[in-house]
């Protein structure tokens, strides 16, 4: 979910929102909400025995129903690292969009010539 949001919305947010800080904060707020929904969906799918894309589960074998639940901690760490990288790329795209907007607006600024 947050990968699609990053690809679709990060650059346009930086480009169309006039203040860079507002664009960045907007991206991070929406991305954190989507990350929470994505994590909950993945966790509930894994606990119910479902599989994700490609037929694999999110965190290893489906839990058997007894506690403590066994899971692969390396897959949890990899999930966090991949999502952190996606978020950093999104932040970069927001900042890049703001930079492109500021360069375009600087190029279109007309020169003012005083005529005596």
Polypeptide structure, described:
This protein is mostly helical and 116 residues long. It has one domain. The protein has 3 helices and no strands. α1 runs parallel beside α3 and α2 packs antiparallel against α3. The longest helix has 35 residues. The model has no long low-confidence stretch (mean pLDDT 84).
Query: Strand tally, please?
Result: 0
The DSSP helix count reads: 3
**Topology pattern, helix = H, strand = E:** HHH
Mean pLDDT score: 84
Oligomer: single chain
Radius of gyration from the alpha-carbon trace, in angstroms: 21 Å
Largest sheet descriptor: none
Structural class: mainly alpha
Features:
about 120 residues, mainly alpha, about 65% helix, about 0% strand
Topology:
Elements: H1 2-16, H2 20-47, H3 73-107
Helix pairs in contact: 1-2, 1-3, 2-3
Quick overview:
The chain is mainly α and 116 residues long. It has helices spanning 2-16, 20-47, 73-107. It contains 3 helices and no strands.
């Amino acid at each position: 979910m947050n990968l699609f949001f990053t690809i679709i919305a990060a650059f346009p947010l930086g480009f169309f929102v006039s203040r860079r800080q507002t664009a960045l904060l907007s991206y991070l707020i929406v991305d954190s909400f989507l990350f929470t929904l994505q994590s909950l969906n993945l966790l509930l799918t894994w606990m119910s025995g479902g599989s994700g894309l490609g037929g694999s589960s999110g965190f290893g074998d489906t839990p058997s129903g007894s506690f403590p639940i066994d899971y692969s901690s390396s897959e949890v760490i990899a999930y966090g690292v991949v999502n952190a990288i996606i978020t950093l790329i999104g932040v970069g795209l927001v900042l890049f969009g703001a930079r492109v907007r500021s360069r375009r607006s600087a190029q279109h600024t007309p020169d003012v010539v005083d005529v005596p």
